[in-house]
Amino acid sequence: MKKPLYIILFLILVLNFSVIKAQNIQIIPQPNSIIQGSNSFTINENTKIISSDKTVKLAEDLRDYFKSEFKLSLKNKATNKPLKNYIKFQTDNSLANEAYELTIEKNTITICAKNSAGWFYGSQTLMQLLSYNAHYSKYEKEIDIKEIKIIDKPRFKWRAFMLDEARYFKGKEQVKLLLNEMAYLKMNIFHWHLVDDQGWRIEIKKYPKLTEIGSKRKSTQIGPLQWESPIQSAESHEGFYTQDEIKEIVAYAKERNITIVPEIEMPGHSTAAIASYSWLGTSKKEIEVPIKFGVGKDVYDVTNPRVTQFLKDVLDEVMELFPSKVIHIGGDEVKYNHWKNSSSVKQYMSKKNLKTPADLQVYFTNSISKYLQSKGRRMMGWNEIMGHNLHEYQDKSDTKTSQKLAKESIVHFWKGDVELATTAAKNGYEIVNSLHSSTYLDYLYKNLPLSKSYAFNPIPKDLSNEYHDKVIGLGCQMWGEWIPTDGEMHYKVFPRIAAYAEVGWTNLEKKDFSDFKINLKNLQKRWSAKDIYFAPDDYVEKK
Predict the structure, then answer these.
(1) Contact of 183 with 124, CB cutoff 8 Å
(2) N or C terminus: fewer CB in 10 A for the chain?
(3) In the UniProt record, which is one GO cellular component term (predicted)?
(4) Distance between CA 279 and CA 440 in Å, rounded?
(5) Where in the sequence of the chain do the CATH 3.20.20.80 domains occur?
(6) Cα gap 226→479, rounded to integer Å
């Protein structure tokens, strides 16, 4: 009896492709579906890269990759005619945002996606396959790569790396280096912490003293005791980004499918701004940019219309520079004693029927949220913006609030009982989970080893399934107090950033720490070639 045609086709598929289980494809982050065949595709200088108007830049980047990595000069071609021996970008509107399908067959490679994000990630996967999972003959000038089909999309839509430059200014070349590695690892949010107590790093043309004064400090706390250290560098530190440099970096990130989310701290962590313009502070006293780390000497007087106008003016210039729909306003570690000691603040609170300092903070935060919404943007802040008590130095009675945070806000969870994250989700807020004990890159490896970074799950353990979609992703944070040199930053970021990339992208059932460590060897070779001074294997799991 003849078998039906669909059964024959199915048997051919099974015979030609096998799902990889024991054999690991050396890609970080690990794709979510991998099917491998038995034949190979040979790439040589006769191979064409087929592109359209939408994919011409991606095709150029791919061509540059072949030239730099393999000394192969491939030609780009715009055509709809069927060809052999080509690499093609193809549109499939049924795929999800950021999803892609990469198919390598005997004569063709197809990267299928809905939009530029998917095509970009498909290209990154192809590059990792070619670099680490293919055979290259420099004599024949050919690359042989096995047939494979990868169907892939991210687990979370927010996959962020944060760099704090308020404490130590790094400059655009280091930022570009980080953006390149983020893109290679399919991370899509660069959270840029540009202002804090110890420095203001972004040019605001309406308020030039912010960089004339606020971007400089005369010395810096250093030493092995870190937070308790009495040692000072006795050397000045300064630096800031001009608006032209910001535009350059934003464009650079966009080409790599990365959105830059700026963080402009308010109402706390504002000493550098108050040192520039004393009228911004609650005390109105002249102060200097701090030379010690920790929470600063004053906070914005958010009851003063002149101060709130200043903050709106700053945000206006920030929004001109950053197209991100999300603007981060910090909101963490506000020491309420500054407001409690001010008679004018007390009068304002009485007039507005605000019973506690937490009421005042949430009231102010909601006014900023409303302003950002009027500009088509959305506010994000650390989870103190909900009015919760997270710190021992706060009086519990000060953190009781009847104010409700604006529903459009994104809550950036970093501290407190994980139940607080659950509460936020149940109340309808979207959450980015950056629990400090699992994501803060300034922590020593003995406190945050690579295995703990890899094991982090942004969805809290006891969160009911109905609220899982409220957790939109994670961030890993490179706080800058103890990274005075680029090398010290590299040591803390790499290799942990690769672990967070896989946390953000790969489904739980596809993750395997043993495989990840094997795959990491390839990234270490890449980093060494780029003079990235990552932490060696002997240190990342130190107890």
Answers:
(1) yes
(2) N
(3) membrane
(4) 34
(5) 158-481
(6) 13
Once rounded to an integer, what is the mean pLDDT over residues 190-199? 98
Residue reference for tokens 């420095």: 199
pLDDT tens for 12-42 read 444 444 444 435 789 999 999 999 998 999 9
CA-closest candidate to residue 338, choices 392, 375, 283:
283
| Residue 249, helix vs strand vs coil | helix
Q: How many Cα atoms within 13 Å fall on the side-chain side of residue 433?
A: 28
Enter the tokens of residue 224.
């092995």
Q: Give the span between the Cα atoms of 160 and 137, in whole angstroms.
A: 37
Q: What is the mean pLDDT of residues 363-390?
A: 95
pLDDT > 90 in the chain, percent? 84
Q: What is the DSSP letter of 541?
A: T
Active site residues: 333
User: Residue 242 — φ and ψ, nearest 5°?
Assistant: -70, 165
pLDDT: which is higher, 419 or 483: 483
Hey, is 39 helix, strand or coil? strand
Topology (CATH level 3) of domain 158-481: TIM Barrel (3.20.20)
What is the gyration radius of the CA atoms in the chain, in angstroms? 26
| DSSP single-letter state for residue 350 | H
Is the backbone of residue 346 left (phi > 0), alpha (psi -120 to 50) or beta? Answer: alpha
Task: Give the whole-angstrom CA distance, residue 515 versus residue 512.
Answer: 5
Residue 22's pLDDT is 35
pTM over 0.85: yes
pLDDT at 82: 61
Residues of the chain with CATH 3.30.379.10: 17-152
Contacts of residue 165, Cβ cutoff 8 Å, sequence gap at least 6: 192, 193, 194, 199, 201, 239, 480
